[in-house]
Amino acid sequence: MRYRAVTDHSRTYEDSIRFERGESIIVERQDEDFPGWWWCTDKRGKSGWVHESFFEEDDYRFVAREDYDGRELTVRAGEVVHGLDVRGGWALCQNAAGEIGWLPMTSLEPLEG
After folding, report:
1. First to last CA, the chain
2. Res 4: pLDDT
3. At 3, which helix (H) or strand (E)?
């Protein structure tokens, strides 16, 4: 799916939370504005928002179900990006330069074709 950015969006954190499948993470609190997103911390001590579909509880600890990188993508209104995944109101996108990151769906409109 291709999207056009309808608003500018700037990356919030330069060094975002990231982890690999099977790693333990700390899960702290749920986002009030985006249900299903949780404030988490990785083994490097980096924190950020993670959708609950990326982790599960296993024997009183939280474990990653799949690899995750919480980096956001910086875009300008009018820029076209390719959508790779959508979860909880956010889309993982790739821009023309090959950069990959998350964008809020409220900043995007789908393109036909």
Report:
1. 9
2. 98
3. strand 2-5
52-108 pLDDT, tens digit per residue, is 999 999 888 999 999 999 999 999 999 999 999 999 999 999 999 999 999 999 999
In the block, residue with structure tokens 């820029």:
79
Same domain, 64 and 22: yes
Phi, psi (deg, nearest 5) at residue 28: -110, -60
- The residues that bridge with 82 in the sheet, in sequence order, are 2, 94
Question: Count of domains in the chain?
Answer: 2
Round to whole Å and give the CA distance between 5 and 41: 29
* pLDDT at site 13: 84
Range of the domain at 79: 2-12+71-111
**Token pair for 43:** 């083994």
- Indicate whether 6 and 38 sit together in one domain: no
